[in-house]
Automatic annotation (TrEMBL):
<keyword id="KW-1133">Transmembrane helix</keyword>
<keyword id="KW-0812">Transmembrane</keyword>
<feature type="transmembrane region" description="Helical">
    <location>
        <begin position="273"/>
        <end position="294"/>
    </location>
</feature>
<dbReference type="InterPro" id="IPR050721">
    <property type="entry name" value="Trk_Ktr_HKT_K-transport"/>
</dbReference>
<feature type="domain" description="RCK N-terminal">
    <location>
        <begin position="370"/>
        <end position="493"/>
    </location>
</feature>
<keyword id="KW-0472">Membrane</keyword>
<dbReference type="InterPro" id="IPR036721">
    <property type="entry name" value="RCK_C_sf"/>
</dbReference>
<feature type="compositionally biased region" description="Polar residues">
    <location>
        <begin position="35"/>
        <end position="47"/>
    </location>
</feature>
<feature type="region of interest" description="Disordered">
    <location>
        <begin position="1"/>
        <end position="50"/>
    </location>
</feature>
<dbReference type="InterPro" id="IPR006037">
    <property type="entry name" value="RCK_C"/>
</dbReference>
<feature type="domain" description="RCK C-terminal">
    <location>
        <begin position="509"/>
        <end position="591"/>
    </location>
</feature>
<dbReference type="InterPro" id="IPR036291">
    <property type="entry name" value="NAD(P)-bd_dom_sf"/>
</dbReference>
<dbReference type="Pfam" id="PF02254">
    <property type="entry name" value="TrkA_N"/>
</dbReference>
<dbReference type="InterPro" id="IPR003148">
    <property type="entry name" value="RCK_N"/>
</dbReference>
<feature type="transmembrane region" description="Helical">
    <location>
        <begin position="329"/>
        <end position="350"/>
    </location>
</feature>
<feature type="compositionally biased region" description="Polar residues">
    <location>
        <begin position="1"/>
        <end position="14"/>
    </location>
</feature>
<protein>
    <submittedName>
        <fullName>NAD-binding protein</fullName>
    </submittedName>
</protein>
Length: 603
């Protein structure tokens, strides 16, 4: 299983009602091809059997586009209420409009009970935002076909990590884990680091002076023309490209502080409270002086009487028994005025405590932050961005309108200040320090909201770097070309190729540049009947060509493997190597070619 983390795609929740199926004929238009080398074409030749995709959101649209353009026969199970259902049919997929996915629906889509029919589907892609629905559908499909390849987009990473034990041939994909590093790189203008998921860990490759908790040296780039790849040791660590599990802090966190309780209390006591308190204080002072002069009581007693009247605590009638009528009337007026003022004061304080202001003051920004990054939209993608920026030690401020957003808890855990409000409003962005920020990431689920945020930020700060999350490719292109607001990225466009690669059983590999050369980091499985079965792990290492980093014989990965231990069928290896070194590894780990159940010759 390849595990990427938690998912961030939003979807339209299907109502729990009777199943309705409406099939849309596939488009007769010509499918778009993709240029590739002859070897790539052979590796990417699709099986004659189709792929079933379940979902309703925009990630579904991107995934179907990617699969159809690769020549796959796609059957899409879509909620009839989805606004993408017609577009999916136009792409060339056979569409089934279904509200509830049941076993009968999966069977109609081509998932066979034993997978022996020529028309049986070979893979199932689940893109629902509800993990429970995904797991239930995956278990149902596994009972129907034990050899079915299942690709799942999961929100909860802990559930995703256990799916391999339940489902066997399963791939878990995460949109936030794939997209967040790209947004962070845009914000920091940092292209020296490469983030990846390898061997059950989130890893980072880059210059040695930026990486902490180093795992291995990938290259010695002292000579940029001919770097030494996968060296055993290096005389100049400063020139190394290394693989590690974290990066050094940039020491900027002190620039942004959360508001403490002192600041929170001051914000609760806003202008309205101060005005009412000033009127009450003036009334007490004037009333005390008049009471002392009219009744002749001492000053402290006069102060006590007037404060009791203003705060509606009462007034002693015997003191004013012999007072002139106008004094008695004045005492009543003072008392009535006090009642009104106390009521107003109570209403204002309650409004400050339970309204939107409370959310802002408890998690808001203290002082005037500078040179920080503002993350607008704390959904699953925004939460992942906060984690990476926090690990980098970057000063960051979050902006979110929904108090239940996933990133709110992440921000509180990491002690990151959050401004509660609409990110497209100037007041909200000013509170977040947009005029002094170095970068703003607009990551909400709405293209228009992100565009409005970018336009307001540009008006506040001409020098700030802006990156927008946008689904509409045409709109993003026009915005970048005509408005010059900054870069735009799409989470679904990053997720779709990874899902298509998982469906085709292509390895997910990451390229790490080292001078004028490159290294590939990936995971390889030792197949049954391959030459590698029974060999010792150390025999696979090639100086300068291939290095085994970790192995897994079950679910857990061992990053300190015993190199004298023999390999078994199903052993997974996390490796780093050159293209030629990885090619030689694949030759010894793949099983001999044999016909599969559909009659196609393949490994």
């Amino acid at each position: 299983m390849t595990f990427f983390g938690s998912s961030g795609a939003s979807t339209e929740s299907p109502p729990a009602s009777e199943e309705t199926v409406a099939e849309v004929p596939p488009s007769t238009g010509r499918r778009r091809g993709r240029a590739s080398t002859q070897a790539d074409k052979q590796a990417q030749t699709p099986d004659s059997r189709g792929v079933v995709v379940c979902g309703s959101d925009r990630t579904m649209l991107r995934v179907v586009t990617e699969l159809v353009s690769s020549g796959e026969q796609v059957t899409a199970i879509v909620n009839p209420a989805s606004r993408h259902i017609e577009r999916i049919g136009e792409l060339g997929a056979q569409v089934m409009g279904v509200r509830v996915v049941r076993e009968s629906v999966l069977r109609r889509a081509g998932i066979d009970t034993d997978g022996t029919k020529p028309s049986a589907a070979r893979a199932l892609v689940l893109l629902d935002a509800d993990d429970v629905h995904n797991v239930h559908t995956a278990l149902t499909a596994r009972d129907m076909d034990e050899n079915l390849r299942i690709v799942v987009q999961m929100v909860n990473p802990r559930i995703g990590a256990q799916l391999h034990q339940l489902l066997g041939d399963c791939v878990v994909i995460s949109g936030p884990s794939l997209a967040a590093p790209a947004f962070v790189a845009d914000a920091l203008e940092d292209d020296e680091l490469t983030w990846l998921e390898l061997g059950g860990r989130r890893m980072v490759a880059g210059p040695a002076d930026l990486i902490r908790e180093k795992v291995t040296v990938l290259a010695d780039t002292t000579s940029s023309a001919t770097p030494d790849l996968l060296p055993q040791s290096s005389d100049d660590p400063a020139g190394d490209i290394v693989l590690g599990t974290g990066v050094h802090h940039l020491r900027r966190k002190r620039d942004v502080r959360r508001t403490g309780w002192v600041m929170a209390t001051r914000d609760v006591l806003d202008r309205r409270v101060r005005v009412i308190a000033a009127v009450m204080a003036s009334l007490v002072v004037i009333g005390t002086a008049l009471t002392h002069w009219i009744t002749g009581v001492e000053w402290l007693r006069a102060l006590y009487l007037v404060m009791g009247a203003v705060t509606s605590a009462g007034i002693e009638d015997d003191v004013f028994a012999d007072a002139p009528p106008y004094a008695k009337v004045a005492a009543v007026v003072v008392q009535l005025t006090g009642i009104v003022l106390v009521a107003l004061l109570t209403a204002v304080i309650v409004d400050s405590l339970i309204g939107a202001r409370l959310s802002r003051v408890i998690g808001g920004v203290r002082g005037r932050p500078r040179n920080h990054v503002i993350v607008c939209g704390l959904g699953t993608v925004g939460a992942r961005v906060l984690e990476i920026l926090s690990e980098r030690g970057v000063a960051v401020v979050g902006v979110e309108q929904d108090e239940e957003a996933p990133g709110i808890q992440t921000a509180h855990r990491l002690r990151i200040p959050v401004v509660m409000g609409d990110s497209s409003q100037e007041e909200t962005l000013r509170l977040a320090g947009a005029p002094q920020a170095q970068a703003v990431l607009a990551l909400t689920d709405g293209d228009i909201t992100n565009l409005e945020t970018a336009m307001v930020v540009r008006d506040l700060n001409d020098d700030v770097r802006i990156t927008m999350r946008m689904f509409d490719h045409d709109l993003a292109h026009k915005v970048e070309r005509m408005l010059g607001l900054g870069h735009s990225r799409s989470v679904s466009m990053l997720v779709a190729p990874a899902i298509a690669a998982a469906v085709a059983n292509r390895r997910s590999q990451t390229t790490v540049p080292a001078g004028r050369r490159v290294l590939l980091l990936t995971e390889v499985t030792v197949e049954r009947d391959s030459v590698a079965v029974g060999r010792r792990l150390g025999e696979l290492d090639e100086p300068g060509g291939l290095r085994v980093l970790a192995r897994a014989d079950g679910v857990d990965w061992d990053w300190s493997p015993a190199f004298g231990r023999p390999l078994g069928a199903g052993t997974r290896l996390a490796v780093a190597g050159t293209r030629s070194g990885l090619a030689r590894l694949l030759l010894v780990t793949r099983a001999p070619h044999r016909p599969d159940r559909s009659g196609r010759i393949g490994p």
